[in-house]
Amino acid sequence: MKSWIDQQIGRQFLFVFYLFIGLILLTSLAVYVYTENQIEQTTSSLENISERRTNATELFETWQSMQYEMRGYVILGDDAMLERVQEKQVLIDEQTTWFEQNAVTDKEKTYAGDARTLFVAYQERVMPSLERYVEGKRSGSVTEPFLKMPTLGKVNPQKEPPTDRKFKINSKSAADMSASIVDMESVFTKYRNSLNAEEDALRAQLATHTKWAQALWLLSLLGVLFILFIVARPYVRRLTGQLQELIENSKRLAGERRPVIPATAQSKNEVGQLTTSFRQMASSLTTQRHRIEEEREKTARLLHSIRDAVIYVEHTTKEKVANQALFVLFNQPITKRNEVDLYRLDVSLEELGLQVDQKDAFFAFMERSFDGQCKEESVTFSMNQEERFIQMYAEKVYLRGTRHGTMLVFRDVTHETEVDRLKTELVSTVSHELRTPLTSIIGFTELLRFRKLSPERSEKYLGMIHQETLRLEDLISNLLDVQRMESGKQTYHNEPERLSVILEQAITVHQGSSQHHRITFDCQEDVYVYGDRTRLGQLFTNLLHNAVKYSPKGGDINVRVACERPDWIDISIEDHGIGIPQTALPKLFDKFYRVDNSASRKIGGTGLGLAICKEIAEGHGGAIHATSNIGKGSIFTVSLPKMDLSNQMSS
User: Fold this and answer.
1) Which of 104, 115, 385, 596 has a Cα-to-Cα distance from 408 of 20 to 30 A?
2) Cα-Cα-Cα-Cα dihedral of 138, 142, 146, 152, to 10°?
């Protein structure tokens, strides 16, 4: 039976419900029987009192009626009234006899005795006197119009009644005719008051019994509830505990946390079956979630690993997620780094577009992409004043045949653009720089070959041919140096070198190359560097060559060596030439880059010298930078690590 009940919660609730109803019915029935018994007894007593009150009232009314009939007989002398008086006497005798037979309490017995005594006294004394009085009026012996007690005494003289008689009739007073009525009324009132008091006591007793019955029923109900609470509390706690575990596990499962499910079901009812099904569902969902998380992490890591920047925009929620390359490309901080998922992008696409140089074209392309009207395969934009070049395309993302979002892909093509630019500039520079000296060499060679020239002019032409040949050699050497730098094959034979010696040799080469320039050299300390003597010489030679070349009007060129920083040597070369625009300084050391102004175009050059200088400086662990003012000159500063010769010698 218990096993059958435990199989379903409905059976358990019905069992408890029926048990509760049964106990309530039993307790209610017991209280009802008790209350009914008490009410029946009290009702019976009240009915008895009501019956006695009714009989007493009837007796009193009959007595009064007899008195009135007797008075009428005395006044009118009607024999019919006398007959009615006699009938009333018979009825009073019967009623008084009932009280005498049914008297139980002392008060009832006293009432019955008083009523009998008064009736006997009235019947034996008053009635005969009144009858003789009427006979006297008829015979003429009594002539008074109204009854007077002295006359009644003369008509029917009697002895004084016994002293122990309770009710007395005094014939000397005319009012004594109504004394019997007053006496009967007093007896009746006293008896009726006793009945009222008894009735009030019974009603109070009935109210008390009713209250006790209510209290007893309430106590029995509370007792039943307490028993059910004691019996059902463990079951309810167990049931609610299982449901609470299911709720908590559902929340954990919804919050992507692992649910804590018992190994086996704790009961065989619906909750136990639900627990078993939930455990199976949770296990299946956990497995599927792990697979989904693995796939999501794999997708995220793949997108993070590619170098192209990706943004996915959800159309319904406007949420934007991106891979790591996007934040690097647009210099955006990553709010929460998580390699297993894409990063949330908080800034708007309009804010990202502010970094694009071609803003109108960029926003127009974005609008076409989101509207689905984009027909271009890709477009190319520049960023931050052509600091970077970006190739961009858009893809529509569909899920189950419905478009859910748009994916924007940004590819950094700065290197490719730079390579194309370098190729173009290389072809342009080489074709121009090679054509100029070759034209001179061919022209002077044809003059020497086909014309007869003086020895002085021939010598002059040969010198110019030699100078142009050296110019070609310098150009080819620079191209070869750039090629080695690009391929990573540039090598340095580093040794401890005295810096002042390298600088003096470079200054000596350029000291006599121009009559309009004066080179000054200031080196306060005898410092050493660890580097390649040839490459360092090439570095300072290029810088001095540029100082001379870009100050065509001449002037002083100052070379200073400063050791103000503990571990660094700063070598500055200052000229007073045409200067460099501030906008050109960031790209000054790029390959094939030449300042685009009229003065520099007249001077010419390949744009490789400063790029080679930068490579040599960085190859020695140093750096190079430039400051300049248009029309006032430029300062190129090379910073190299200082070498501690004493430590080098000891090692």
Assistant:
1) 385
2) -110
Q: First and final CA of the chain: distance in angstroms?
A: 98
Beta strand 528-531 with 495-498 is: antiparallel
Distance CA 334, CA 311 (A): 14
| Whole-angstrom distance, CA of residue 569 vs CA of residue 562 | 6
For residues 294-305, give the mean pLDDT.
77
Tell me the C-alpha to C-alpha distance, in Å, between residue 164 and each of 167, 168, 184, 509.
9, 10, 18, 179
More confident residue, 498 or 172: 498
Strand order in the sheet with 309-314: 343-344, 320-322, 309-314, 402-412, 388-399, 379-383
Distance of alpha carbon 382 from alpha carbon 355, whole angstroms: 9
DSSP 21-80: HHHHHHHHHHHHHHHHHHHHHHHHHHHHHHHHHHHHHHHHHHHHHHHHHHHHHHHH--HH
Q: With b meaning 16 or more CB within 10 Å and e meaning fewer, what string describes 101-116? A: eebeeebbeebbbbbb
CA atoms lying within 13 Å on the CB side of residue 601: 3
Q: How far, CA to CA in Å, does 266 sit from each of 232, 235, 251, 274, 364?
A: 17, 12, 20, 11, 65
364-389 burial, b if ≥16 CB within 10 A, otherwise e?
A: ebbeebbeeebeeeebebbbeeeebb
Q: Is-contact 425 418, C-beta < 8 A? A: no
The partner residues of 393 in beta bridges, in order of sequence, read 409
Q: Is 456 exposed, middle or buried (0-12, 13-18, 19+ CB in 10 A)?
A: exposed
Helices (H) then strands (E): counts for the chain: 18, 13
Q: What residues does 314 pair with on adjacent strands?
A: 405
Is the separation of the CB atoms in 166 and 114 below 8 Å? yes
Specify whether the CB–CB gap between 253 and 285 falls below 8 A.
yes
- Give the Cα separation of 271 and 274 in Å (integer): 5
Residue 496 · residue 530 · CB < 8 Å: yes
pLDDT tens digits for range 355-369 = 888 888 888 888 887
Average pLDDT over residues 338-360: 79
**Percent of the chain whose predicted confidence (pLDDT) is above 90:** 4
State the Cα–Cα distance between residues 202 and 49, nearest whole angstrom. 10
User: How many Å apart are CA 371 and CA 369, to the nearest integer?
Assistant: 5
573 near 547, Cβ under 8 Å? Answer: yes
Distance of CA 565 to the CA centre of its chain: 57
